[in-house]
Amino acid sequence: VQLVESGGGVVQAGGSLRLSCTASGFTSVDYTIGWFRQVPGQTREPLVCISRSGRTRYYSDSVNDRFSIARDNAKNMVYLQMNNLKLEDTAVYYCARERDLNSWYRLLGEWGQGTQVTVSS
């Protein structure tokens, strides 16, 4: 089982980034996959996930009107489109899997190594 995040980088406030999560070693279509972020020294913050059927669920009011999630089951990919980025979005972003949509936010499944997003002023 492997989840690999990519697409992070440095972006100015107000800019956009698209993160990608590549799933391998399992049938990704059988899982809810989503994104969370973590700032060193702080707790993990679930952001948004997408179910096998494409249902989305947001867990953070700070991103639900700026970030969107999509998945391409044929490519085993999940994307996080981040728009109007703010300084406080700076964090390491991870994708994580869970079989049950309703349990995803607990982050008890596997996740990748993360990708750094830095928003500069």
Topology:
Elements lengths: L1 E5 L2 E4 L4 E8 L7 E7 L6 E6 L5 E3 L8 E6 L4 E6 L8 E8 L16 E6 L1
Parallel strand pairs: 2-10
Antiparallel strand pairs: 1-3, 3-8, 4-5, 4-9, 5-6, 7-8, 9-10
How is this structure best summarized?
The chain is mostly beta strands. The chain has no helices and 10 strands.
Overall description:
The strands form two sheets. The protein has a six-stranded mixed beta sheet with strand order 2-10-9-4-5-6, with no helix packed on it. A four-stranded antiparallel beta sheet has the order 1-3-8-7, with no helix packed on it. Helices cover 0% and strands 49% of the residues. It is built from no helices and ten strands. It has strands at 2-6, 9-12, 17-24, 32-38, 45-50, 56-58, 67-72, 77-82, 91-98, 115-120. The model has no long low-confidence stretch (mean pLDDT 95). With 121 residues, it is mostly beta strands. Strand 4 (32-38) and strand 5 form a beta hairpin. The chain starts with a strand and ends with a strand.
Shape: globular
Sheet of most strands: 6 strands, mixed
**Radius of gyration, CA atoms, in whole angstroms:** 13 Å
Instruction: Please write the string of helix (H) and strand (E) elements.
Output: EEEEEEEEEE
Sheet with the most strands: spatial strand order:
2-10-9-4-5-6
What count of helical segments does DSSP give? 0
Number of DSSP-assigned strands:
10
Binned strand content: over 45%
Distance between the amino and carboxyl termini: 37 Å
Low-confidence region ranges: none
Residues in helix, %: under 10%
Structural class assignment: mainly beta
Mean pLDDT: 95
